[in-house]
């Protein structure tokens, strides 16, 4: 490992936030020392990664906020990675939200970083994996990763997390059958946020039924009602997360599965190196308007030139 | 092109649904003749691809249903590709929904196919692109692609469609700021479905404001209220889609952008060929519990063996 990267890595391990921010930038942009930094990481099993996910408007950021307040009281050291472009932890946030967050930005036990959701084509997942691994090596107890959506991307993100919390809002109640397929398999804990709203009880009941069906005699996926804006139910959620993590300790099969997913994304990112997006676009622009254009023949030709 | 694939392709072009289903299966599973079939496609500019997307519970399938009824009256030939695992067009659907759909399954102007959302790791997007291209060559006027989610995957799917319809429900109204970032850039048309619900007017107004801000003097993204279960607003939506498609005819820049995205996904799929997932898992299982395990060193070693 080059000397300066070795030093940076030692600073990161010692909990230096500036060094960590620099390390993330190196990984994010694949600057000099990028590979050395990753090859020098240890697989930290202390820091636990908690994914907070769900559709837009489910109150994920407010929930992350409430969990931060809760765990700060317990002297936990926490990192927040906001992959959700609409998160107030992210740059795209409204001014009001940014101000609300600013308490945390100066707290020495909290590290916050927003990540671009659409960087280089095809590189998203590998980058988030790499950055999460750098963060895990910096002595945190908990790494909270906030992601948006209930589609494919979220399923992939679930592969990152030791515990995935799926956040829903009451209005989803009467539609809960339709979300069954994708969500049940990734949720370790369900949150019914904004539980003061009229339909909360219906959604809660439906999720409990689904959890019961899925469990088939084993432990049921917990369903927790919260009003994150008022910290209601947040202690219960935090306890459920810790309980789930403690129960996960000896699940080598699940861990192997997640690691295989991670490897796959890293291999994909590696394989795509050297593909010049600008040249691709230029050659495509020349080919696209020809009479006999065929996309698959073009791709075959482009790859043969490499 | 091998003779049997040439014949199959001619049958597909002639509108033979059985041949089309067989062609999709060949592409989906990369059976013999897979590459020949793709290399034999023409870039059809007649068939228009319409993406219907949005969060679970937004009523996307009901909207697709209503659009099918509308366009059948106009003698359009339509294909439906359901990428949404919770879609009643998909196998995962509840029994009641499947029965509701069965009218369409026997209609000679409608072809319906559900696509697995999680097949081989990393192969999703390329497969959907390839299958959509096969379908486009089969003489349809319209190809409806139903996808779920408001995350990364959906943004990628938007690259497929000539027109992307984002479907929301009234309850999202007061949260519409939070969804601004991701959705505004992919929506060509907004639908406020379940418009009979109390908050519909608020969501409608907010989306109109966002559309106005984004347009900055140019054409604003249409926002259309529907009650898909009663066919309310569906004719208006269908007209808005056709109007948008007509206006898109001469947008080479956008087309180039979409084609570049497509190429990128195809290249990615090509590059991942030959990576043996089973061997990866086996070697990882051996390495993972060693004292000095480092994920990045493992991936490097695995790739060096190839």
Write the layout of secondary structure elements.
2 copies of one chain form a homodimer.
Chain A: H1 3-13, H2 17-29, H3 34-39, E1 48-53, H4 60-73, E2 78-82, H5 95-105, E3 110-114, H6 124-136, E4 142-146, H7 152-158, E5 163-168, H8 180-184, E6 189-192, H9 200-215, E7 223-225, H10 234-247, H11 252-271, H12 277-287, H13 295-305
Parallel strand pairs in A: 1-4, 1-5, 2-3, 2-4, 5-6, 6-7
Task: Look up the CATH topology of the largest domain in chain A.
Answer: Rossmann fold
Task: Work out the count of structural domains of chain A.
Answer: 3
Q: Sheet with the most strands of chain A?
A: 7 strands, parallel
How many angstroms separate the termini of chain A? 30 Å
Helical content of chain A (DSSP H or I, runs of 4+) = 40-55%
Shape of chain A: globular
Strand content of chain A: 5-15%
State the strand order across the main sheet of chain A: 3-2-4-1-5-6-7
Largest interface: A-B, 77 and 77 residues
Find the structural class of chain A using helix and strand composition: alpha/beta
Find the CATH superfamily of the largest domain in chain A: P-loop containing nucleotide triphosphate hydrolases
Mean pLDDT of chain A: 80
